[in-house]
Each structure stands twice: as C-alpha cells, then as structure tokens.
Amino acid sequence: MSYPVALPFAWLSPVTTSCKSAANTETVATTASLSCSSNMRTLSRAGRRTIRQLKQSLSQRDLAVMKSIELYRYLTASQIEDLHFHDHTSPLTGARTCRRVLERLSETGVIFRLERRVGGIRAGSASYIYGLGSVGQRVLHQGDAARVRRREPSLTFIDHTLAISQLAVDLTVISRQDLVDLLELTPEPGCWRSFQQSLEGSVTLRPDLAVAVRAAGYQYHWFVEVDLGTHSSASVARKCRVYQDYWCSGVEQDTHGLFPKVLWVTPTVRRAEQLGRAISAAHGLYENLFDVTTTDEVVCHMVGVKP
Predict the structure, then answer these.
(1) Which among 97, 111, 143, 257 would be 20 to 30 A from 293, CA to CA?
(2) Confidence of residue 191 (pLDDT cuts 50, 70, 90)
C-alpha cells in the first residue's frame, strides 16, 4: 500500500524566484566552567510570590526571548537579535538594545550564558550562547519547573543545536516578507512522532524540525534532519528506514492528510552527495521520500526556489 508524500498544491500565483539563502553556521568553541552570582542563587530559591513579582517586572519582549531560548534549547545573541530585535530604526540600534536586554536578563538569572562562544572571543558579544535558567523556567511555568543543571554541553551537541536554531531563525526571517508564509515550525521534541513498528513495538521518530511553508501559492511540508557529518552513511540509512516505516504505518497521513518529505541538510556539497549515494544504495528505500541539500541552499529548497 502506498501513501501520499507532501507535494505542492493550491497554486494561486506564479512562482517567484526571490529567496534568502540560509546562513552557514560554523562554530569555534572554547570551554570554561560556568559561574553563578549570589543574586541568581537567591532567586533560584525564591518563593512563588517573588517569582510572580519578577514576571510582572519583565516586558513582553523579555518573555518572548525567554520562550524562544526554551523552545530551541540554546540561542546565540545574534539569533536572538534576528528573532526579537529586528524592528528598530537601524541594525546597530537593534544590536545595542539586544545586548542590554540579554545582559539584564543574565544578571537577573532568568537566562545564563555559556563560556563557549560561536566564532571565539574575537566575535564579540553577538557570539555569546544563552540558555534558560531555573529562574526563567519558574517564571514561564508559574513557579513550577525542574531544576536546570547549568553545565557546558558537548561541542557536538551545541553545534547541532545551533545549526537547527539557525535554520529556524532563517525561516522566521524570510517569513516576514510577503513571499513566504510560515505555517509550522516545530523543533524537537514537539515534532517527534511515536508509532507501532511490527517487531520493534513502539518506536519514536525524532526529526530535528517539522516545517510547513506556503510560497507562491504552494504548500511544502518537511521533516528536517540536520546532519553535520558526525554519523556514518549506514546510520543515516537506518534513520531513513525508520521514516519509511512511519510512512508505511499511515499514522501521519491519517492525522494530517499527507506525509512530509524528509529533508537532510548538510554543511557541504560533498557531504550532500555522500548522503545521496547512501540513500540511493540502501536496499528497499523509497528514494522519492527523501531530499538532500546543503546549509547554503536549504531555505530556497524548502520554498521551491532554485538558488
């Protein structure tokens, strides 16, 4: 039995050739231990009344910044600026305002800053990486939240997380134009899917992002896998088989009426070609279920525009 794969539909206007390319996120890391101020330790033990008062003192943009950091796990200052400080009179004003807000939120303890930076120390304050602290979690969740262990994540983890975040930021930025509507942008774990696999029992499929966009009257639906070359071709083929098993289960189609195409995003053309060959060579894989593209071309690919 076969099921439909997401394809463009509901064409309303001619296809446009305008598109913004996604930025390539390359990181150079330094590692050091985190430190906490006495103010942050005090707030982390504060009662619900204190947390409620703190929330009342925060602006809507402060809360939006915190929610974005929680949603994507970690964000750089530059990514936060693109998401929430884009409407100032000039980019310089937006950057300065963003820097002041992040400094204030860090001092309050609702967010924390990793010692690791994107691009190293010379990249400046825009290279800082931020996570949501336990105080911030309590503010967002009415005083109830699990204690956050603030420790430096591995280089592999932070690189992968920031690459996913950058794609989400790029899609958000381009959606501000009249050319593209962002219908869905769900990172993990919200985009994960569970289903029954014949001999394996319950299986959880873990995409990095679920994306739906409308461009030039077409809709495009994607499960996105960000690959930084850390997994073997065999591992990629195994992940593809899980996607195919989920497609064959019909669960997604019954729920949403279609199955999103699976898009592998790689940092280089060479890696993209390697993954393409691995998918083609894998016995029994339905190749039309999968696409492979590079970081530089991913946004254009996702909205159906040739770079």
Answers:
(1) 257
(2) very high
